[in-house]
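Morning. Coffee machine broken again, so started the prediction first thing and wrote up yesterday's gels while waiting. Chain of 205 residues, entered below exactly as on the submission form.
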Amino acid sequence: MINGEQAELVTAVHGSLCNGGFFSARSAFSDHKLQLTAEAFELMHEPEIASLIRRSINASDSELEDLEAPYLAAIPDDEALARLIDVSYPPDRPDKSSDTDPRAHAARFVSLIDDWASGNHGVVKRNRIFDRIKEQEAALRATADGRRELECLVDDPRDSVALFAAAAVGEWDLPRAANRLHRMQDEAGTWSFEAKYTLRGLIGE
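Came back before lunch.
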């Protein structure tokens, strides 16, 4: 298994490799970072890829070119890498047996949205956080108390939180959700575009 930091590093190095080959990756990342990337691939049971990356650290420019073809044959694009990471880096899951209070689900829901909206993560990690947001949302939807927590979050001052809450609440209280989404749209802030299309989805346009 690999951790989140390793998944982010592997993704970054892979992006550099795909855009400019091993020469680009070696210019962009220290020998230490490349060594850590190789170790991550070993943890993902990809020793041949790990070996290619280690060899690139001390290779000449002409040798670097020879390393690119076998690497890209094994991992040709971002989708292939994402599949590999998915197997080796399952998302952290909260212990549901000790988290049955709707207020706890709501707090986790908000915390995950803040993390997702922060812009501090790459695509792979951000998608995983989104999946966990939807898990918390589903837990809140499942009870009357949970639905009330979501209704309160429609009025949260953070537009990102209100957006997720309104998208859920609109399925049983459309006027409440639509009112908040209209306000977001009119304010023309960071989330106004998402608010517009969330509202359209709720009213069936």
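Residues 92-98 have pLDDT under 50 and may be disordered. Going to sketch it on the whiteboard this afternoon.
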